[in-house]
Amino acid sequence: MSTATTMHDETGHVPPAEVEEVELYHAKTWLGKYVFSQDAKVIAIQYGCTAIAIGMVGLVLSLMMRLQLGFPNEFSFINPSNYIQAVTMHGMIMVVYLLTALFLGGFGNYFIPIMIGARDMVFPYVNMLSFWIYLLSVLILVASFFVPGGPSGAGWTLYPPQVMLEGTPGHEWGAILMLVSLAFFIIGFTMGGLNYVVTVLQARTRGMTLMRLPLTVWGIFMATILALLAFPALLVSAIMMLFDMLLGASFFMPAIVSMGEQLDHSGGSPILFQHLFWFFGHPEVYIVALPAFGMVSDILSVHARKAIFGYRMMVWAIVAIGGLSFIVWAHHMYVSGMNPYFGFFFATTTLIIAVPTALKVYNWVLTLWRGNIHLTIPMLFAIGFIFTFVNGGLTGLFLGNVTVDLPLSDTLFVVAHFHMVMAVSPVLVLYGAIYHWYPKISGRMFHQGMAQFHFWITFVGSYAIYYPMHYLGLMGVPRRYFSMGSTDFILPSAQGLNEFITIAAIIVGVTQLLFIYNLVWSLFKGEKASDNPWNATTLEWQTATTPPGHGNFGKELPLVYRWPYDYSVPGEDIDFLPQNQPPRGAG
Amino acid sequence: MTITLLFMAFLMGVVVWWLVKQTINIKPWVMDDGVLVGDVDAGVLSEPKAKTGLWVFLAVVTSMFCLFISAYAMRMKLGDWTPLPEPDLLWVNTGLLVLSSIALQWARNAAKQDRIDSLKVGLNVAGVLTIGFIVGQLFAWRQLVDDGYFLNSNPANAFFYLFTALHGLHILGGLVAWIRAVSRLWRGSDAAQVRLSVELCAVYWHFLLIVWLILFGLMLST
Fold it and tell me: How many whole angstroms separate alpha carbon A421 and alpha carbon A57?
């Protein structure tokens, strides 16, 4: 590794050479081309569709919860058991099976090769396997809805001992299927992740130095490294939990009396599980956030016709956030009775992570400053992201402090915080990114009117949902409760607020169908898109055909001459210079 | 979690060091018209891609075993821990694994020097020794069960079965790669064509040997 780099450093500029060509696997059958495809772009779309499909299930589950909270006991199909099952499955589906899969499996597969000027991922066959194993894991997860007892109802964190006690719904089959499904997800992801990392390291085209990578690639690259190192913690806890459940081990299970019966377990430590789970769980937040950070940077820069402010700082902030994300996990465990000095340590690291994150926010805002802002649909979503992210980040400062966190723990304030920061924010970026790259991926423009409507309902609607939730949380309304019962501290007006939130949630939820309708409608009826409708500089917009064919580029791979943010360069005739455009006088 | 954190810190150190080397003082926005800026080499690694892939994979596996060891260290401190007597057979198995690693290294050198016969011998011997290791581990399980050291009777036992099972699974995965290399040799590939596969097998075997020595040492000493 080191010898190669020093060699290049010494020679400085090496003479131009032919770009090394790779042999592509060309499928001969329809099945090989569209189903068992080894083309990263097809795999990306497969990942994307699967993730969005299971995400819709998660969305329906969340509406089910909201119906109960807004109109308690009005709906007979919701009972305490399937309410907590909905809570559990909604959380796990959204965090792992939707966001992680869509950002890394979907966007990672599509954009890593094409943005770095490669024909495909370096191990296409492994890449294909990665998708099919992911699909298997999704199917196993879905199967848990249909087994006796239904899916697990232990909350998405699957804390023992609750997860395997008789009183918890899905304690026999549901929980096991969930853990097995997660294990498969991790195996599938590792296969994909190896691909993403090695592709970024070794398949970049000539001239594409690390510091000429678009921030989208930086975000996905760093998130993949985090995921590769953090998912093993989830795997470890899943395996040990399965040992406890199936083989009678006592890693996590203490001696416990359940339903009047002494269980066979003794001496295990539920806290050990929490440590392992959150050692995965916290980096997971950034596994979702870093790709979003990267993509939003690119969208802002393109639609403000201005170079991203502080590119190097942005790259280093991504790296710093990635590193720090491994030493903050216990801030999820302030109420577990930990040593106060530990709490102090983790509160400190948690607040430190706000520094690189805030740098990124400043840089996004400064990118907009005196830019030539085009309020296109992707731009609306990107700006919406800045708002929600700042909002969610600020409540993070509250919860990061032990003393403030203790009374707020397990209230709706926490729910409002993490939905703002890691649900709405990344999802807004996802929508922005889908609208931004839809013309390239499908070859058609999306319907503007529907997209406008979708943006405003989603953006304003998410505030309508989560803003009041902070107040409910401050009042002490607990999360995960099926009904509040009679309490003194919850004012009757809380019910009115809950009703309002539910109605807003239903409106936002239904509007998402319009988004899917728009995608499908535009695929057939949309206006034909040009190769580069946004006048962007990065390589995916410079392909010979739209949508790009297998192999991404034409006969020759592009040569990269410049960084990806040459917008509005003084003295140039056009306001953008593609990365593969030679400097003047060089041609 | 100290062990895991040390490993993570080390890995992050490597990543950051490598990035600093590549990126510090680079101003990608500066276009110098005097030089053909496009001719700058992208600085991609020159290693074979499969080799980089393997090293990244080893980092993932190391992360997993570090977490298991962390869990072991944390669980051990709780009151109900009774160490189990490791069967002497494990020493024999360890010997087999060491020998298989040596045989693979020998095969790797033979492949480098195009000595096809030694390559075949080394590869076959390594496979047989490895299968011997797996069988030996199964016998060790048998022995422990016969002596009444069940998985559910003590966390130390559970960790023993967990560690050996996972390590064994990784060895089995390695054997798949080994079978691919051997079958290609059978079908008449020459040394140059399997050189990379054999090299990767050797690296993986050395890695799993180190993992085993650490796990075995940990279980012996606690």
Answer: 21
